[in-house]
Amino acid sequence: MLDDPPESDTDAPANITHWYDPSSTATTITDGDGTRVVDDDGTEYLDFVSQLYCVNAGHGNRAIVDAMTDQLQRIQYVSSAKRTPARTELSRELAAVAPDSLSNVLFSVSGSEANELAMTIARDYADAPKVLSRWRSYHGSTYGAGSTTGDPETREPLEAHASTSGAVKFLPPMSYDSPFDADTPAELAEAAADHLEFVIKNEGPDTIAAILTEPIAGTSGAYTAPPGYFERVRELCDEYDILLIVDEVITGFGRCGDWFGIQTAGVEPDMLTFAKGVTSAYAPLAGTMMRPEIAEQVRSGGFDIGQTFGGHPVGCAAGVAALEEYADGLIENVRAADDAFADRLSALERTHDVVADVRGRGFLRAVEFADPETGAPFHDPRVDDGDNPVRDVIDAAGDRGVLFGAGRPATQLMLAPPLCATTDEIDTAV
Ligand code: PLP
């Protein structure tokens, strides 16, 4: 018999740590089905954050499990330098549903790595060192991707250790708590794009390889861009010869009502990164898509580096099956429920003084809390001392059987159910 593990001496609230601490009292999830998960006491929860914004097709999806099982029974692994039927099929299907400009894919394992590879390829292609990314963004936890992350809770600890060389931040077109003085969405789009142009000019366009941005801010608070913003960003990229990389790690695979978030703006990116929803989290898989001419130039220059588990066959089999589920009604379900979801949250804003803003699109939504007297957030987002009403709301909702996420900063509650959620379940959660 092993001894009991020592008691944890950290003060981190039990349910919000990623560290695996054997004595933690965090909920132990044992089972799942559709929008529901079950803990080891048999208590059922409505999973309104898709675990980490990734279980897009819902829990316990038989078609995905069967496809993975079939792959495992035939051959469990094939070198990432070889072809497998599932890998080939998934890359074809991705090219079919992604923006038209993107036909090549380089598979990896996590969203951080997909962004890491996108930046390396962009720097190589453009022969320029800088990547511009937004304040209030999340792009990953690794050496390079960590340096582009711009949310106040994650940026500081990451940046202390990340490679910040070449990482430049610009201001996002936030509609709430905006850094811009704008009265209308059109004014906001213009002011934010003008600011971006100012940054480009002052950094020196020749030194900039790429702009890396989420089409809709994910964990930074479900901020959609005002109409016209991404069109201007595309124009700036064309004018100054900068690649546009969209990070679709959260917004991809139907979460916001289209296959990819950028498609709602009708803008063609040069590169696109994905992870999470590609397999609906049945296996780790990620990828970097790009225009064919980028892939050709970079490959002919000698960049031909794969990862052992990049494009793992079981992940690709899951991906093919998950994409079929999305095409077969799940994306349509998000679209059909979009207005109802928005209406329910708007009603919450009208009836509850502490709700300062609601926003998002499809099944990626945020509720912002603020002191009704002062309009200020209830706590300093840079100090996560466990004394935060948003965390209290999350805990209280958990006690009543609904799981939500905390945004970064945690002044906002995140709602992101699996794409099979019904309007009744949205009602229950709200
Ligand atoms: N990009 C975005 C928008 C994300 O939300 C995340 C993770 O949450 C990442 C990148 C990093 O992905 P991963 O955690 O798989 O490395």
Automatic annotation (TrEMBL):
<dbReference type="GO" id="GO:0008483">
    <property type="term" value="F:transaminase activity"/>
</dbReference>
<protein>
    <submittedName>
        <fullName>Taurine---2-oxoglutarate transaminase</fullName>
    </submittedName>
</protein>
<feature type="region of interest" description="Disordered">
    <location>
        <begin position="1"/>
        <end position="34"/>
    </location>
</feature>
<keyword id="KW-0663">Pyridoxal phosphate</keyword>
<dbReference type="GO" id="GO:0030170">
    <property type="term" value="F:pyridoxal phosphate binding"/>
</dbReference>
<comment type="similarity">
    <text>Belongs to the class-III pyridoxal-phosphate-dependent aminotransferase family.</text>
</comment>
<dbReference type="InterPro" id="IPR049704">
    <property type="entry name" value="Aminotrans_3_PPA_site"/>
</dbReference>
<dbReference type="InterPro" id="IPR005814">
    <property type="entry name" value="Aminotrans_3"/>
</dbReference>
<dbReference type="InterPro" id="IPR015422">
    <property type="entry name" value="PyrdxlP-dep_Trfase_small"/>
</dbReference>
<dbReference type="InterPro" id="IPR015424">
    <property type="entry name" value="PyrdxlP-dep_Trfase"/>
</dbReference>
<feature type="compositionally biased region" description="Acidic residues">
    <location>
        <begin position="1"/>
        <end position="10"/>
    </location>
</feature>
<dbReference type="InterPro" id="IPR015421">
    <property type="entry name" value="PyrdxlP-dep_Trfase_major"/>
</dbReference>
<dbReference type="Pfam" id="PF00202">
    <property type="entry name" value="Aminotran_3"/>
</dbReference>
